[in-house]
Amino acid sequence: MIKVLFVCLGNICRSPMAEGLFRKRIKDLGLENQIYVGSRATSSWEVGNKPHPRTEAILNKYDAYFHDMKSEKIKDEDFREYDYIIGMDRENIENLKSIAGNNQHKIHLYLDVCNKVKGQEIDDPYYTHKYQETYELISKSVDCWIEVFKKGIN
Q1: Whose CB among 20, 29, 126, 148 lies 3.0–4.6 Å from 66's, allowing a Cys bridge?
Q2: Which of 121, 63, 74, 127 is nearest to 99 (CA)?
């Protein structure tokens, strides 16, 4: 099974949005026994909190799965347990690399997987208030990532 973590600053906007959208897509494709997704934060500010209400609204709008989500901070064992640790912006990537130890190779910038959006960051809608734009950026790369994950399934 391929295990994937999406990571943002507080784990209440971008990373739970990605987790919810991926859960839905993975289920729609019948891959739930082959790909597992979760999400984490690089900070502890929101630990224990549910996704932001506007993130929940987006996930509801697109029938994504999120009702059991609560913010968690990334832990050392996550770097050993997960195959992919995907940050939403360069600050997340820098924070992850500072604690990843020998697992640097597992860290990726979310939008780098698709040529259409490669090198771009996903800004935090908590500050920009652009939740729909955030959804659109995340959704552009869902199938690109699924193809990457499928290559690792044996």
Answers
A1: 20
A2: 74
